[in-house]
Amino acid sequence: NKELQVFKEHTDTIYCIEFSPFSGNRYLCSGSNDKTIRLWDIENSNTLYVFNGHTNGIRCIDISPLQSNYNKNNDNYKALIGGGGYTICSGSFDQTIRVWDIETAKQLNVFKEHTRCVNCVKYGSNELGNIGYSNTILSGSWDKSVCLWDIRSNQQIQVFNGHTSPVYAVEYSPF
C-alpha cells in the first residue's frame, strides 16, 4: 500500500497503459490525451521514447506479443531495449490506428478507415493456433464497428458491423 514510482511527463489525461511482454516486463507504455505515447523504463523511471504522430489524444495501446516480420537489415538498426522487432499499436480520437517500431519510435503503418474514435486495439497471437494472427490487429470504435487489419499488407481484412453502440473492447476467440 505504498507508492513505488511516479511518472509525470505527460501533460494531459492518460487513457491507457501496457507493460512489455519482453525483458521481464521492464518497460511500460502509456498513451495520453496530450497526443503522445511514451515508453518508460520502470527500473529507473526514465522515458525512453516519445511517439508523435497522432493529431488527437491516444485512447488505447497494445504491444505486440511477438517480434514483427519487418525487415531490419539496415546497418544503422540496433536493438536498444532488448525487444528487437516488437511494435506498439495505438488507437486515437483522431480515428486512426498507428503501428510504431518500439525501438526507433518510427511510425510503420496508419489505418484510417474508422469514422469515429478508436476505443480499443488488440494484436493477434500465434498462441491462437494460426500463424497468420500474429500479423493482425483487431480494433473497436465509437463508429460501432470492429475491424480486422493485416499489418504486413497495411490493409483492412474484415469489418464486423451490427453493434448498436460504440465498441470498447475486442478480443480474439481462443478456438
TrEMBL record:
<feature type="repeat" description="WD">
    <location>
        <begin position="88"/>
        <end position="110"/>
    </location>
</feature>
<dbReference type="InterPro" id="IPR015943">
    <property type="entry name" value="WD40/YVTN_repeat-like_dom_sf"/>
</dbReference>
<keyword id="KW-0808">Transferase</keyword>
<protein>
    <submittedName>
        <fullName>Protein kinase</fullName>
    </submittedName>
</protein>
<feature type="repeat" description="WD">
    <location>
        <begin position="111"/>
        <end position="159"/>
    </location>
</feature>
<dbReference type="Pfam" id="PF00400">
    <property type="entry name" value="WD40"/>
</dbReference>
<dbReference type="InterPro" id="IPR020472">
    <property type="entry name" value="WD40_PAC1"/>
</dbReference>
<keyword id="KW-0853">WD repeat</keyword>
<dbReference type="InterPro" id="IPR036322">
    <property type="entry name" value="WD40_repeat_dom_sf"/>
</dbReference>
<dbReference type="InterPro" id="IPR019775">
    <property type="entry name" value="WD40_repeat_CS"/>
</dbReference>
<feature type="repeat" description="WD">
    <location>
        <begin position="7"/>
        <end position="50"/>
    </location>
</feature>
<dbReference type="GO" id="GO:0016301">
    <property type="term" value="F:kinase activity"/>
</dbReference>
<keyword id="KW-0677">Repeat</keyword>
<keyword id="KW-0418">Kinase</keyword>
<dbReference type="InterPro" id="IPR001680">
    <property type="entry name" value="WD40_rpt"/>
</dbReference>
